[in-house]
Amino acid sequence: MLEQYQAQVKCLVALDSIIFGFDGDELKLLLVKRGIEENDVTWSLMGGWLRPDEGLEESAARILFQLTGLTNIYLEQLYSFGAPQRDPVERTVAVAYFALINVNDYQEKISDSYEAQWFSMHELPNLLFDHRQMVDMAIRQLRYKATQHPIGFELLPEKFTIPQLQKLYEAIFATTFDKRNFSRKILSTNLLIKLDEKQKGFSKKGAYLYIVDNTRYQQQFNSFLNFISSN
Amino acid sequence: MLEQYQAQVKCLVALDSIIFGFDGDELKLLLVKRGIEENDVTWSLMGGWLRPDEGLEESAARILFQLTGLTNIYLEQLYSFGAPQRDPVERTVAVAYFALINVNDYQEKISDSYEAQWFSMHELPNLLFDHRQMVDMAIRQLRYKATQHPIGFELLPEKFTIPQLQKLYEAIFATTFDKRNFSRKILSTNLLIKLDEKQKGFSKKGAYLYIVDNTRYQQQFNSFLNFISSN
DNA sequence: ACAAAAGTGTTAGAGCTACACCCATGC
DNA sequence: GCATGGGTGTAGCTCTAACACTTTTGT
Predict the structure, then answer these.
(1) What is the CATH code for A2-148?
(2) Looking at the C1' of nucleotide D16, which residue has the nearest alpha carbon?
(3) Contact between chains at B52 and A91 (C-beta distance less than 8 A)
(4) Which of A147, B57, B109, B216 is deepest in the core (most CB within 10 A)?
């Protein structure tokens, strides 16, 4: 049986992460400039190679850290891509992960010392290989997940307003919602705790700030994870 | 940049397929006997190695054919598994696919000349490596998909009855449904065409046979595929 | 005082759940 | 004629979608 292993061709395994961010207004995508191409400027997802001692998600997290300094990002596996010619240099199977972060929480870390840069989802540059396909798939998955559970909280500051949350969902789905129905639906989840503070400066009236009820949120999130992944 | 490729460690890539079948009564899983272990009898999913010139799904289909003779099975990618020690012999990343077939349509092909065998989902043997985890995840995915679109048609003969379809969904979800609500819901999709024939032999009264309205079904299925995969 | 955004309630329709009886046939 | 599984309708409830006016406050 061991010969069966030795007879096999090995190949490179890459990890590519699609990092979405929200800046309060628009949905953004984090990309790094790619050095390979000379004439055409091409951008790439957060990508790198699997090391012998790493699990897949662990590797994606390490690569993300090396490229951006970001840590403690919840990465979710999206899909694996393995068309024989997808990387013209050498046969590579890519496992794609995606994540959601709040742009403002991480902006300094990223722009300081790294080559990574945020792009509006509406103005994406040319992407390497099949990365565009990965992004399209991730946005679909993001939309699906957003209908299933309130993942949007990850993308906002700790204290946020209902109108901010609505803007986020409108950015994810590229549509608009009725604010009365939206707030009713969100509040009916009982995941939000209303504070006495109001957000000032943006509107004249000011909107009430909310925080996530973390006890309840963790419960829901865990049952969602149990549904999706195994055990 | 090329050195970056050469510096990387390559690893084996395996494809494992979880094949579900329905025999009219129970949900089953297709497994092959695994030669490695001597004392303990261990069974394995339909697994094999990626070849240099193959895409992932293509490879999974080729492996399935070699182990069972099955062709033209719609395989859907499930998840990739890459824990460093998941295969104790050598580091392997496994991409898992799953599929649904009608046991009766394929039974002869399989049992004749191959080592593959159907197991009731309630009586699964010990499985190789992390295959049990893959199966658990696949059943969750199957349930999810079954709520989203009527994937169950794949598992039934061309002509089938509403009670048969109900049994199938009850097997997938390991529960029971109210037959009035079930038939109303299924018929409201307008995907079924009622025939003048009745199924004889099983019940005394006999149940009306239906076929899938393929035009409508393809439409729905395609929009579902577009949602899940890319482009 | 007015402009800009926040906040809030009602109603009609659709879809879901729960539930019970009659029908056709083989034995 | 009776046992077995097949077929159907209704009523209450919940959820959703559509819709407009008042409040607050910075200018």
Answers:
(1) 3.90.79.10
(2) A181
(3) yes
(4) B57
